[in-house]
Amino acid sequence: MMLFTLILLPLVGGVIACWSQRVHQDAPKWIASLCLLLSLAFLISIKLFTSMDPSNLWLVDETLAWIPRLNISAHFAMDGLSFVLILLTLLMGLVGLSSAWNEISQHSGFFYGNFLWTLAGIIGVFLAMDLLLFFVFWEVMLVPMYFLIAIWGNENRRYAALKFFLFTQAGGLLMLLSIVALAVLHYQQTQILSFDYQVLVQSPIDSEFAKWICLGFIIAFIVKLPAFPFHSWLPDTHTQAPTPASIILAAVLLKTGGYGLLRFVLPLFPDASQFWSPLMMGLAGISIIYGAMMAFSQTDLKRLVAYSSVSHMGFVLLGCFSLNFYALQGAVMQMLAHGVSTAALFMLVGLIQHKFHTRDLNQLGGLWSTLPKLSAMGLFFGMASLGMPGLGNFIAELLVLIGTFKQAPMFALVATSGLILAAVYSLRMIQKSFFGVSVNADENRENKTGHTSKQIITDLNAKEKITLMLMCLSLIFMGLHPQPIFNLVNGSLIEIASLFQASFQPEILLIEVQL
Amino acid sequence: MTILLGLIPLLPLFSACLLIFWQPKLLLTQIIAVGSISLSALLALILNVQLWDQAQFVLQVSLGQWLSIDNLSLGFTLYLDPLSLIMVTIITCVGALIHLYSASYMKDDPDVCRFFAYLNLFVSAMLFLVLADNLILLYLGWEGVGLCSYLLIGFWYREQKNSQAANKAFIITRIGDTAMLIGIILLFYQFDTLNIQQIQLQSQQLLQMDELPTTEIISLCCLLLFAGAAGKSAQVPLQSWLPDAMAGPTPVSALIHAATMVTAGIYLVARNMDLFQLAPDVLHFIAIIGVVTLILGATSALAQSDLKRILAYSTISQLGYMFLALGVGSASAAVFHLMTHAFFKALLFLSAGALIYCMHHEQNIFKMGGLRKSQPLLAFSFGIGCAALASLPMTSGFFSKELILEQTLLAHQPLLWWGGVIGAFFTALYSAKLFFIVFFGKLNQPSTHNTPTAMVIVLMILMLLSLVGGVQPQGLFTHFSAPADSASPGHTLSLFQHWLPILLPIFTVTLAWFMFIKGYFTPTTPSEGSSVSLKQKLHQFLLSGWDFDRLYRLIFIKPFKLVTEYNRRDIIDLAYRQLETFSSLLYRQLNRFQTGQLRHYSASLVIFCVLAIAWGLIQ
């Protein structure tokens, strides 16, 4: 019941938060933060008190009956991979709360309710071991997110929310079809009807059709990631979403795509993923370059960060489909590091927007002289996103590249040039927003828009400072001492890598000779 | 002793963190910043004294494990051998002098704390670079140096020009760095390790084997590593960031040009000399690049009128000499020149800083003149610096440049030698021109300020080093000389080859005296129009550093901007938007049928039934 409780906590917390608005205007945010802290404590205690058994991959594994007739059960399990991602979810949830603290005033009860429900859905996604259960949580996390965007978003929020919902829904539909097809094929092959991951993974189906089922899963996941031709929902959604929703979206929601690839696509379809791997690596390469080029030309800060996410998540896709142990480790690390660095960037953009009422790069500039602390943070996270060694993103990208160079040097070469473009757009962002002459534009703009009351613009307050500092420290930790994280996910990734090791051996030799 | 070694890079790092988070008052800032780096310098000197008489020493200290996955195992391990000891000594000592100078130079700047934090971080990153025992740790220092140079070049961030120069520096070096990262990854698969010493050891073993396996891939690795070195050390074609990097405060230029940053590339190749020996073609290529760069730098410096830009181009050209030395396989000559260059270039930049300060931020040398009376100290320091740069006999620059040219001949590269000699001619010419124009001739603009005491002390020390820094104890550089260093026996220099480089600077300086002071050889009346315009074109060409900027703007920047600007609305999204328009169009069309009028509905019902029955009958 432990894992079930872990999901239940934010679910129930959301209901209470929703209701508590009637008691007091400020009650929901306190309840939300209390609930998240409680979940965090609970998660860590699970990790601490479960005996670390090296022979057993799963830290916790529990099953509840759900629909026995179809042999569908509420099967939850947690391994190192799920653990680090849930940890990221809860921590970034706290970051989101911190940025929502002063920003959200309307319907705050419903807001925090939705916020917690999204997180509950995401945690469920990371824990569900039954494919139908996984699908349920996959949808559960979307609906509250839709509300968050559609109610509390910026000027064009309805369009963005709908776009977000349609894209992910289309992906979800494909996944549902693939799940059913997979179960049916498995039934034909073994006469066991099961949606259970651990059952399905025992006997990979060998059928021509597996390729297409695999593709269904892949598309569902890379829409979420998002990779090249399916990325266009992300910039719109991010631009319109309120900052806390942006943070959750960028930091965790996108990672469900990468998690899906690692957890389901690679182990369930080893042959098919090998078949699709060149195509996917190609898409990843295009994502990296295309996202970076798009990021360069944006003038809206949020759009810029959103496109940079496309570029960074390309590394996750590349890492997953390099089918190589280094690259897999890199992909997981990239999910974590990108989660933190992008969440921080969105938080900073949110703060800038809150203070200056604009995200337009042409109207910003010279922030360093008025807001040195915020700008220093911006510089730090900008550097993180361009892959400065010593920070988590570099370790991730390095490992992905090392892995990819072994399997497919050409794709790796394309991806590496993304590092140059990352520098180009990050530096442009830093220069345009923080450097240059301090724009007296705030006065001008206020005159133009008719605001006569000149509000004093203040630098980071203590809460924001602490939040951002902790994020800095976690990135530095990932960059300088990543070994604990590697060790946590080691078992799960060895399992995956061993699927490909044997079949890949001859090809490795081939490539080495070619080089 | 290992604790001392660990402290050397950590002290500046610690002080940088302290300055960033604490932001103390001015005096305390100066004490912390200068103190930490001086302490590092002191530790480096202690290590020097202790290890002096040992022929071959290696000191290792582990600061912790970084990561270990499968075959890949990295640690924060520092590795000290004679080569890195020399580098550490140069970096900390020159760095400390520059810090001391900056404490006086920057004391009126409101952001002095940020400045010293960056400066300390810069030195620390550079120390990690030269002490790293694996290539990824080296890369960490490498990028850290790039980051700090970016921050320092754009230190006065209010000027758009400065941050553009900073961006340019970062992006161009990043291009080289990325190539280098690819090279490192390829090396990992070749040698199964990223430990630098193991790579050298394996390379030596490979070299002793009769036939070299997989030479091509190793050549490729070397070429990629050299691309990184060329980016950081401003070699053709990645040199164009360095002149613009003058946008930062002058002590920063001194630090970039003398002790840190640009020497990183030299160090990288020298450190991996055994590996490069496996790829003789690449070494030859490096030598050619070095010669091209040194001529480019020297001729461009001749055309500049901005004091700092002259010095910047001279750095490019001197780095070319070092790469020439590396290319002919003489790492010790390269590092020797690196050391003397660090002394006299720091001297020149710091004197230039003091001069510009005295001249109210005037940087154009043609607006100065006759300053030897009012600024005797600066005239003296510039004189020594320029003499060393021009490699007049008995200065430090003379010995090292001489050694490089000698090694080039011993490696049987007469063509490259001529390149080096021509470069030496131009070098002597522009350094003499710089000195004569600024300090002789008629007084254009009086200077007012006096040089503060701290700056004077620093300049004195550097003057001394520039003069006698070339007199090296014999044992110092033999420690790490590669096997190819030892000259092939039987080959000696001819009399001409021996005396030409010695006499050439003296001759050239005399020539310069007549050219720029006496006004000989300069046509008083412009000759025919065509030749003038040709001359102007040549001048323009040299002034812009052989027009690399325009070329890059044409090939890379413009197309990139055009494409991104054109695609700003995201062409992929356009497809989805078309889908949206199509479906709403469809909706509007279909919506028309839903009129709400009974007769339309019944009519359509009848039509449908008729059609259905007709279809059935036909079937």
TrEMBL record, chain A:
Transmembrane feature ranges: 30-49, 76-99, 119-152, 164-189, 209-227, 247-269, 275-297, 304-326, 332-353, 374-396, 408-427
Domain of life: Bacteria
GO biological process: ATP synthesis coupled electron transport; electron transport coupled proton transport
Keyword Endoplasmic reticulum: no
Compartments where found: Endomembrane system; Membrane
A GO MF label: NADH dehydrogenase (ubiquinone) activity
Keyword set includes Transmembrane: yes
Keywords, alphabetical: Membrane, Transmembrane, Transmembrane helix
Signal peptide from the UniProt entry: none
Family membership noted in the UniProt record: Belongs to the complex I subunit 4 family.
Official protein name in the record: NADH-quinone oxidoreductase subunit M
UniProtKB/TrEMBL annotation, chain B:
One GO term describing the cellular component: endomembrane system
Subcellular localization, as worded in the UniProt entry: Endomembrane system; Membrane
A biological-process GO annotation: electron transport coupled proton transport
Residue stretches making up the NADH:quinone oxidoreductase/Mrp antiporter transmembrane domain: 132-427
Domain NADH-Ubiquinone oxidoreductase (complex I) chain 5 N-terminal: 66-116
InterPro entries reported for this sequence: NADHpl_OxRdtase_5_subgr (IPR018393), ND/Mrp_TM (IPR001750), NU5C-like (IPR003945), Proton_antipo_N (IPR001516)
Record key words, sorted: Membrane, Transmembrane, Transmembrane helix
Bilayer-spanning residue ranges: 26-45, 85-103, 115-132, 138-157, 169-191, 252-270, 282-303, 334-357, 377-395, 415-441, 453-471, 498-517, 598-618
Mode of membrane association: Multi-pass membrane protein
A single GO molecular function term of this UniProt record: NADH dehydrogenase (ubiquinone) activity
Source superkingdom: Bacteria
Protein name in the entry: NADH-quinone oxidoreductase subunit L
Gene: nuoL
